Amino acid sequence: MDAQQSISPGADLLARAARLGLWALPVWAALLSITTLKEQPSWQTEPTQWSRFVTTPEFLASHLIASIVGAAIGIIGMVALAAFLAGRGRPRAAAWGLVTGVLGSTLVTAVVGIAAFAQPAIGRDYLAGHTTAARAMYYAAAQGNWLVATALTGAALVAASLVIFGVAAARTRPLPRLAGIGLAVGGPLFAVIGAALDNFVETIACALLIACTVWIATAARRTQTTAEAASSPAPTPAAAH
């Protein structure tokens, strides 16, 4: 058995895993969309409503499942997309997209962790009547300068990752060009513009990300099906009868 024969089975397995892993991206985008369904009251203008909102089980579940677990699923999808693009002659874009995506998702997850565990404690403190202490804790833990800087850096890196991946996907066949463009647009629309506006723009961006990532995963799956059909041996005359 030569070297090519010994490497091919592993390479084929990696390619299959990458195509399957691409479906983690629409799952991640769908989980992101869950976090945009309910608008969080403003602490500055509605502290009581804010405190009631963050102390609900739905708030904790949304952050733990949709945001934190969702980020882990998103990283799996980014690894798969990077592997797929690298196998299609885009190794540099794959590497930069993966590095920025993993770094950004990790930083954002750290901030979401603060929201998941610190904000409910602050809300309970406020509802218990310790309003002064709750206000001090809110600005120290939930709006500290380092936390804000971490959130902004993480969001910018995630947006950059999706732009890099999107541009690379748009230039890579057989992936749909429009799906790649949509991914490149949807990243900044959600992570930067939507996060700043905190309104329906985030929901629109999530819908765009879901559609484009499903399109990309479907196109990759069709590539596998076509390749398997082309590599299948033709039936012998005896088999045809």
SSE diagram, text form:
Layout: H1 3-21, H2 24-34, H3 47-54, H4 57-87, H5 91-127, H6 131-142, H7 145-170, H8 177-197, H9 200-231, H10 237-240
Commentary on this structure:
This protein has 241 residues and is mainly α. It starts with a helix and ends with a helix.
Notable characteristics:
241 residues; 10 helices; 83% helix; mainly alpha
Distance from N terminus to C terminus (CA atoms, Å) equals 34 Å
Counting DSSP H or I runs of 4 or more residues, the number of helices is 10
What are the secondary-structure elements, in order, as H or E?
HHHHHHHHHH
Strand content: under 5%
Q: Describe the largest sheet.
A: none
State the helicity in percent bands.
Answer: over 70%
How large is the radius of gyration? 22 Å
Mean residue pLDDT: 88
The computed structural class is mainly alpha
Nutshell version of this structure?
This protein is an all-alpha fold and 241 residues long. The protein has ten helices and no strands.
